[in-house]
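Morning run. Coffee first, then this:
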Amino acid sequence: MNNQQWLDQVKEDVIEPERPICDPHHHLWDYPQSTYLLPELLGDLSSGHSIVSTVHVECGSMFRADGPAEMKTLGETEFVNGIASMAASGAYGDCRACSGIAGFADLMRGAEVGSVLDEHLRLSGRFRGVRHAAGWDATDEIDNSHSNPIQSIYLDDCFQEGFAELEDRQLSFEAWHYHPQISELTDLARTFPKTTIIFNHFGGPLGVGPYADKKDQVYEQWCKDVIELAKCNNVFAKLGGMAMPINGYGWHKRSTPTSSDEFIAAQSRYYFKTIELFGPERCMFESNFPVDKQSISYPVLWNAFKKMADKYSEADKLRLFHDTAVSVYRL
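And here it is:
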């Protein structure tokens, strides 16, 4: 049984199918074990909800095979910009997929990274920012991020020197790390108050390895740290990305995927607390597909978001599903 057949075991009527959505976080890749290119993306985008635009976030895909090492990451921007051009032609429907692109540039190169950022901008008018994944944990039971970060990378002098290159170029930073690192992101946000920082996936609350069976303790510490982070007005929060195996819910191991109601029962406290702290004007729902597709289907996921959003005003719903993302990414 392939993943889509497994996901199709849970079917739900789409809620508010006319509501416009910008999905501000997905990936595109082609690996031997997993392919998620335009056909697969369109399959999800056309599954019932009204997705009008999307943002691609770096995942180490399609780096150049040749040329200077620091410039190889430009291949991902070239690749995604081509997909975006295909979508913009209208030949594949009304959704403007990959209207925004967050790529990778090695901020540990310090000020020298400026030339790489300039080349990303030259290659695509859709380029909006950088993600240098920072997930690091002391235990061998949890893999560090694909960029192989050092411990406390946000506090490193070389990293901060490279980070300083973002502001003058009006580029944002996608902050992806694990929950014990949230306080370090707060320090970074306070050091660079004019740089837009986008808090990915609730800061990665871990639920495996030494964090297994400690959901309440993890949540309590997460709350303390996010209360401080939310005081930084340059930080915006993505609501999603917590159906990964590292989050510890185990849905990917079951004979049937999760439903929207089960998803809400397990995770809603993170959503409601983040919206309370940041406000809808600094929050945006995200799919994190195809990573979260290991646990839940695209239509069921957005159903869960719409059910949780039902308690908010129509103006706030517009912000959560569309307007915040469009504003932050200047789409």
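The chain has a mean pLDDT of 97. Good start to the day.
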